Amino acid sequence: MEPWPGHWTPLGATHTAEATNFALWAPDAERVEVCLFDEDDAETRLVLPNRTFDIWHGAVPGVRPGQRYGFRVHGPWDPATGRRFNPAKLLTDPYARAVDGALTAHPAVYGHVRPSMDEGGDHRVRDDRDSAPYVPKSVVVDVHPFDWRDDAPPRVPWAETVLYETHVRGFTKRHPDIPEELRGTYAGLAHPAAIEYLTGLGITTVELMPVHQYVSEPDFLHRGSLNYWGYNTLAFFAPHDAYSSAGSRGQQVDEFKAMVRALHEAGLEVILDVVYNHTAEQGDGGPTLSYRGIANEAYYHLDPADRSRYLDYTGTGNTFRVAHPAVLGLVMDSLRYWVGEMHVDGFRFDLASALARSMHDVDMLGSFMTVIGQDPVLREVKLIAEPWDVGPGGYQVGEFPHLWTEWNDRYRDSVRDHWRGAAAGVRDLAYRLSGSSDLYADDRRRPYASINYVTAHDGFTMRDLVSYDRKHNEANGEDNRDGTDDNRSWNHGVEGDPEPADHGLRALRLRQVKNMLTTMLLSTGVPMLLSGDEMGRTQRGNNNAYCQDNEISWIDWSLAEQYPELGDLVRRLLELRRAHPVVRQRRFFDGVPVVEGGRKDIAWFAPSGAEMTEAEWHDQGLRTLGMYLNGGGIRSRGVRGEPILDDSFLLYLHAGADDLEVRLPGRFWAASYEVILDTADGARERRRYRAAARTTLTGRSCLLLRVID
Predict the structure, then answer these.
(1) 306-329 in b/e burial notation, b at 16+ Cβ within 10 A?
(2) Claim: this prediction has a pTM higher than 0.70
């Protein structure tokens, strides 16, 4: 089995009829071995014979798809200069298309001496125990053509997009209509029962929490915990093998593709939550699993004052050095692979500010942003930034380039504050409802740059927002120290679930959830719904359920029967959103008439029925806001340049505790109004009111009226 010379490109393992070519970029290595494992885990080590452009390569005849392998990289152990070569550690191929097996909590997975899992050891002293029995193995994947059946991306325009953030395992694990053997898998998410639910709800785009191959942190495993969310990437090309029902020797690749194909056939886009800002190797005391043992100085930001340590802009111990050409190349190759080979429709970038760091500062004109912007493949897909990291200057909301959209935490905080009754007034709320022009208009971006969300995987669910004042993360095993304390939540007087007989509190909390859903789904921008909020999912007050692979995180589908009105409301609102372009504007409002003497494109009303005054805009005690959307004042045009005309609507958001009588705007604004939705009193829907008539807003409620001319 003497390796042939092979070729330096492509990187990774490439199978042909005669041999499999292995290529690994390791610029400072002295020797590289590819290690092949049989079914009994017996290992065969072969030295890669050639080196071209810092890439070690060789072709091994007879190696077939499904073969497990890894690399051992020889070189100096000198942490003071940033070099941590250790051939005792089996390393995952950065370009592996599939990975098999889980990480075991054993001291041998660390490149440095760690006497036991209970003793940290010294990260500067090399450990020579073999890690192969305890780490995942890369897998050679067959490159046979996949039957995509004329698959085409749905290409939903941003202004029409409705995101649904979910977890492959959590969404399917308890679904009663998905066969048990498929629950928790890609095939489960592709099952007709799952797809029918998603399409019936009315969302357009599924945003999946991490599906790149990840591992749990060894310390978590040692204490009996694990990483459920998956923000701990090991391999950026490989779909996570634990989500495969078909097997982990390459079968996960085809199963993932089949899932994407099924979702596309239903008209649903697939966006991946990707974690390129850090890896599973953690800080200087973390395990050696791949990048650290291949080219530590290149792959990570090291501390210039002590190169044995890492600069941590991510809160995980390390920061991937995307500014390095080879590392940037890996990230771009990975992104293009998921679009071109796996057919995904876009990406949500975890801690995206860290990717824009050049040396230390965030640079929106740096290499990562520049390359993304000019790439003919990636500039055509959806790009979503989590626009911050934990380093200095990392908060970048409103600062990303034109192709990007952003998770808008200003929207989240404003909507939460309004409905919990914080003394914040309504001025900031108006900006959020109308697309956040204060954040995005100054550099000529569009309203859909704002991803409007109230809840996400990280934090309380919507039901928990109205049920808990404090986090309850005791089950995480960190003495409730983990997770944010800034929840902007309100328990309405009782912490947790109320007594069964307390119908009043239950009804109030349910109405508050309806209020937040209504606000989000009728705001200008792109709404993002957290999976399960449409049926009242609870994590029992846990706002950081990253390690809860159990009923805390899995969707309880029986809730859809307990709270059917929530699902019905979401479906109604999304149907209204699809039908009415006035609530999904592609341009910012100007607050002036489109035609002279006409109505403003957007107008804001106080309870008096008059437009808001300057004093009212700055009244911190004001809890009620009326938003008038003029369907005759839409500033964007149709595909042939034709005007877009729509109904007009008046939306009241009343966060005060008491009922409030309001006067509707006068005859200039409407001849009459028809109630479309009332989160407090469904019985008065379809009721009509004359212009300037008085009506009562129930305490803490939304009222949506259609304008009748």
Answers:
(1) ebbbbbbbbebbbbbbbbbebbbe
(2) yes
Residue 1 has pLDDT above 80, yes or no: no
What DSSP letter does each residue of 461-488 carry, written as one string? -HHHHTT-SS---GGGTSTT-SS-S---
- State how many domains the chain has: 3
- How distant is the alpha carbon of residue 453 from its chain centre? 11
In 174-247, DSSP assigns E strands to 205-208, 212-214, 233-239
pLDDT at position 565, please? 97
CATH classification at residue 673 = 2.60.40.1180
Asked if residue 249 belongs to a domain, the reply is no
Same domain, 460 and 600: no
- What is the structure's pLDDT at 500? 83
Domain end call among 140, 162, 181: 140
Q: Are residues 571 and 600 in the same domain?
A: no
User: Helical H runs in 522-663?
Assistant: 559-562, 564-579, 614-617
Both 525 and 646 in one domain: the answer is no
CATH number of the domain encompassing residue 546: 3.20.20.80
Closest C-alpha to 697, from 656, 663, 659: 659
pLDDT (tens digit per residue) in 376-405: 999 999 999 999 999 999 999 999 999 999
Contacts of 254 (CB under 8 A, 6+ apart): 146, 246
Q: Establish whether the linkage from the previous residue to 287 is cis, with ω within 30° of 0.
A: no
Is the pLDDT score of 194 beyond 80? yes
- Write out the H or E segment, with its range, that includes residue 124: strand 122-126
Q: Which of 390, 378, 317, 399 is nearest to 350 (CA)?
A: 390
Q: Which of 579, 608, 632 is the last residue of a domain?
A: 579
pLDDT of residue 429: 98
Amino acid, single-letter form, for residue 431: Y
136 neighbors 69 (Cβ within 8 angstroms) = no
Which pLDDT score, from 0 to 100, does residue 197 have?
98
pLDDT of residue 469: 97
Q: Tokens representing 627?
A: 């938003």
CA angle, 351 as apex, 81 and 478 as ends, to 5°?
85
423 band by pLDDT with thresholds 50, 70 and 90: confident
Establish if 88 belongs to a structural domain: yes
Q: Are 160 and 581 in contact (CB under 8 A)?
A: no
127 and 92 co-located in one domain: yes
Percent pLDDT > 70 in the chain is 100
Distance CA 485, CA 146 (A): 47
Q: How far is 91 from 113, CA to CA, in rounded Å?
A: 17
> What pLDDT is attached to residue 87?
98
The parent domain of residue 29 ranges over 12-140
Tokens 């349910």 correspond to 510
Q: Is 182 part of any domain?
A: no
Instruction: Looking at the structure, tell me whether residues 573 and 595 fall in a common domain.
Output: no
pLDDT, the chain, mean: 97
Question: Is residue 617 over pLDDT 80?
Answer: yes
Residue 241 falls within a domain, yes or no?
Answer: no
For residue range 499-524, what is the model confidence (pLDDT) as tens digits? 888 999 999 999 999 999 999 999 99
**Residues designated catalytic:** 350, 386
What CATH number is attached to the domain comprising 125?
A: 2.60.40.10
Write out the DSSP string of 515-562: HHHHHHHTSSSEEEEETTGGGT---TT-S--TT--STTTS--TTHHHH
340 class by beta-carbon count within 10 Å (0-12 exposed, 13-18 middle, 19+ buried): exposed
Q: Predicted confidence band at 360 (pLDDT cuts at 50, 70, 90)?
A: confident
- What is the arithmetic mean of pLDDT over 445-466? 98
Residues 604 and 519 occupy one common structural domain = no
